[in-house]
Write a structure and sequence with these properties.
Layout (H helix, E strand, L loop, with lengths): L1 H58 L15 H7 L2 H34 L23 H10 L6 H26 L2 H9 L4 H12 L1 H17 L2 H6 L8 H12 L3 H21 L1 H8 L6
Length: 294
């Protein structure tokens, strides 16, 4: 009897210890989840704080330094749209971005198709396309300016478009190449047997299958060209050829410490890439990872 009571007591003790360990593990897991979420929100707030502060300043009255504005106003945006230079900067940015996409996207498509489907000497060195974007563009900026000057293209839109096209091309080609390789070649072979030319196969068969990749490349070129400051600054000199990023810095000198107007201009420059990404985010993500949309 005494032995049975001792065994029962031992079993009850083990069950109690297991229960306490289970409760401790669940408590520790909850603490880990809470710490993870705190760290996540802390990092997200740290990254987004400049943008949030810019939005807050662009809608706050001047000289209102509180964390939350006493009232919201659009006076900074109204003052911004009354400046004629803003429309020149917007026009120039749109023209250069559209010109870069119009040249870079078709050329990258043809180069990527050749790299993916044709065999030619040097094809194995295509991986070098991934190295070229890593090179600092500022290292060749002076020779580039001299080259454009010799071609009589300095201080023209075409010079900036060519520079943007050249420096966007490597990554665009590599993205499209991977997407073409992911498509089944048997479909293209069937089209060739049916009498299609290579160009018809590319246009009627390959392009529809790789539409997400093409959209991803166009968005990539748009964002890079729209945000680029260096090539426009180096290859143009007249104020009428300035793009929007240059305009932000030029307003910094003209407006001094008028932070509301400067933040409003920054938010205005931020809108097109963000809206474009939100509209085509599924295509962009599918294109980056070589997926087909369902």
């Amino acid at each position: 009897m005494g032995l049975m009571q001792a065994e029962n007591g031992s079993i009850s003790g083990q069950q109690g210890r297991q229960g306490r360990r289970t409760i401790w593990r669940e408590t520790w897991k909850d603490i880990q989840n809470i710490l993870t979420w705190i760290a996540f929100f802390g990092i997200a707030l740290f990254c987004l704080f400049p943008i949030l502060w810019g939005v807050r300043t662009s809608f706050a009255p001047r000289y209102d330094s509180g964390l939350i504005p006493s009232q919201f106003t659009i006076e900074h945006y109204r003052a911004l749209f009354q400046r004629p230079e803003l429309y020149i900067y917007l026009r120039n940015s749109l023209a250069i971005t559209a010109g870069t996409i119009a040249i870079a996207a078709p050329v990258a498509l043809l180069a990527a198709y050749a790299l993916a489907r044709f065999k030619f000497p040097g094809r194995q060195f295509g991986i070098l396309f991934l190295v070229l974007p890593l090179l600092p563009a500022v290292a060749i900026l002076v020779p580039l300016i001299a080259y454009m000057n010799r071609l009589r293209l300095y201080d023209t839109y075409l010079a900036v478009i060519i520079a943007n096209t050249v420096f966007n091309m490597p990554f665009a080609i590599w993205m499209l190449r991977n997407f073409i390789l992911a498509n089944p070649y048997e479909i293209e072979e069937a089209a060739l047997i049916d009498g299609c030319s290579r160009f018809q196969v590319l246009w009627r068969v390959a392009v529809p299958m790789m539409a997400p990749g093409l959209v991803a490349v166009i968005i990539f070129i748009f964002i890079n060209s729209w945000n680029n400051y260096m090539y426009a600054f180096a290859l143009t000199s007249s104020p009428t050829h300035r793009v929007l990023p240059q305009g932000v810095l030029s307003f910094l000198g003209v407006w001094g410490t008028y932070w509301g107007g400067l933040c409003a201009l920054g938010i205005l420059a931020l809108i097109p890439p963000v809206v474009l990404f939100l509209l085509f985010q599924n295509w962009f993500v599918a294109g980056l990872f070589g997926q087909q949309l369902k």
